[in-house]
Amino acid sequence: MDAKLLEILVCPLCKGPLVYKKDEQALICKPCRLSYPIRDGIPVMLEDEARQLPPDEEV
């Protein structure tokens, strides 16, 4: 994942910062508890494609 791209990407819902999880190939929004997938090196920043994180999963 390109570092400059990570600096400008925000959650499309709350506009908050995202955390890059390399091992999961995902961008995590902590306030919304959503995990946006990264497919073929491209972040999929669509709410419909995001995975809701369970309350007990650490972010």
Descriptive report:
The chain is mainly β. The protein has a single domain (3-52), classed as N-terminal domain of TfIIb. 10% of the residues lie in helices and 29% in strands. It contains 1 helix and 5 strands; from the N terminus they run αβββββ. It has one helix at residues 3-8; strands at 19-21, 26-29, 34-39, 42-43, 51-52. Strands 1, 2, 3, 4 and 5 form a 5-stranded antiparallel beta sheet that branches. A hairpin with a 2-residue loop joins β3 (34-39) and β4. It is globular, with a radius of gyration of 10 Å. The protein starts with a helix and ends in a 7-residue tail after the last strand.
Q: Number of domains in the coordinates?
A: 1
Could you tell me the CATH topology label.
N-terminal domain of TfIIb
Radius of gyration: 10 Å
Biggest sheet, open or closed, and with what strands and sense? 5 strands, antiparallel
Protein name: UPF0434 protein NMK_3336
Family: In the N-terminal section; belongs to the LpxK family.
InterPro entries: Trm112-like
Organism: Novimethylophilus kurashikiensis
Give a short synopsis of this structure.
By secondary structure, the protein is mainly β. It is 10% helix and 29% strand. The protein starts with a helix and ends in a 7-residue tail after the last strand.
Fold blueprint:
Blueprint: H1 3-8, E1 19-21, E2 26-29, E3 34-39, E4 42-43, E5 51-52
Antiparallel strand pairs: 1-2, 2-3, 3-4, 3-5
Organism: Novimethylophilus kurashikiensis
Protein name: UPF0434 protein NMK_3336
Pfam family, one: Trm112p
Features of the shown structure:
59 residues; mainly beta; N-terminal domain of TfIIb; 5-stranded antiparallel sheet; 10% helix
